[in-house]
Amino acid sequence: MAACLGLAACGGGGGGGDTSASSASASTPPLGVVKVQVTDSFGSAVAGATVQGPMGSASSDAKGEALVILATPEASAAVTVSNASFVGQSVVATGASDRVNVVALTLERVSSAAGGSIATRSGSQPQISADGQSLSFEVELVVVDGDAQPIQTLGAADFALRVCVPDPTDTRTHCVRGAAADVGYQPASATPEAMAQIPGLPARPYATALLLDQSGSILASDATGARLYSTKAFLSALGSDDRALLAAFASGPAALITSAPLTVYGAFRDRAAAPGYFSTLDGLAQQLGGATPLYDSLDSVRRQIVADPTLPTDMARAVVVFTDGADTNCVSPADCRARREQSIAGAQADGVRLFTIALGSSVDLLALGELANQTGGAMLYADTVEQLLPLYGSVGRLHSLSLPTYRLRWTVRAAAPGAFRPGYTLLGRVQVNTRQSSFDVPFVVGVP
Fold first, then answer.
1. How far apart are CA 129 and CA 136, in angstroms?
2. Exposed, middle or buried, 267 (CB in 10 Å: 0-12/13-18/19+)?
3. DSSP assignments along 90-119, one per residue
4. Given this model, what pLDDT does residue 32 score?
5. Residue of 193, 263, 288, 340 with fewest CB within 10 Å of its CB?
6. What's the N-to-C CA distance of the chain in angstroms?
């Protein structure tokens, strides 16, 4: 339990709150104590929340519990609960002289607008200028608000393609892959030369494997478990004919999942049975460690989807993978490319779309973009944990491309001729301004 506030109320040495309360003498009337239980909307404990009472504050423990004291045994006072990842709440709590009253508070996750990219469906191919110094291309972007609803009121002025400058301190490709060295570029115009809103297609049932990266690197990007909460939200939003499977991957002696390098938690579940995964997801919060066998895990889960006899043959199939994209099983960048191409070829042959969801700055966007674009999926990117929830909320409709998109066209120019050639890959970022917020959506474009 969290630290108690007040010696008389807790029966021992207190801590974490107003020290004046703990210095009361034995003759001081007992103070009312209230236990605040903090959970999220799926009933999981919220640890580390600040619970502020009239006599001081305490932090909720691993069970989501904290004790606060009131001015008198039967007093009523406002108690406020806050956490950076959740929407704060207040409640009026009443104490008692003969017991510890319990107050339960449910917090909702903070969410904000976000976006993703898919390969353009227009059939238009990137065009290289005669000198190879300029490239014209199309991308399609998905933009959703904090409730995962499509934002359809944006104009061309709300999209801006960023200038790309190679980072000499980073060996990863940031602008153009293919040349001996990364090549920078700048757009002929920051805003798109052309823009069209593409309506969504009719929805259809789908079967999805939710694959979670549980390697040690996720400790830095998702310390609050936003990916687990967002996965619960996805499972809760399944349609009556949809199916979902949960799996996690990590490898090496530091891996903590049940069966490394890949744990698949049972069989596909429908909407009624999917909440049975919630306790497993809660347990995964403490199972981060090890390396990242991304491509082997993708291939194994994909084969399981294809071979599953319980799924209708005409059902759309996909893998939704949360990862930073860096496969640590690769022995070299060339080996990573070869493994990725094998995963893509397998998904294409099996008709399985790959949806990639990434969080934070240490992400291999090239890898995740190619996996998504070349299999008909989407690359969804969250710069902050607040953007994960709407991205997971939108991916179900992306299975059948039933979300509307923005099709945008740009021309970029490099500093020297020959920068763009067939077989190269362009990486970029579009800044999206929704008027309420501004964020970047990364994309990749393969040059045929």
1. 8
2. exposed
3. EEEEE--SSS-EEEEEEEPBP---EEEEE-
4. 84
5. 193
6. 60
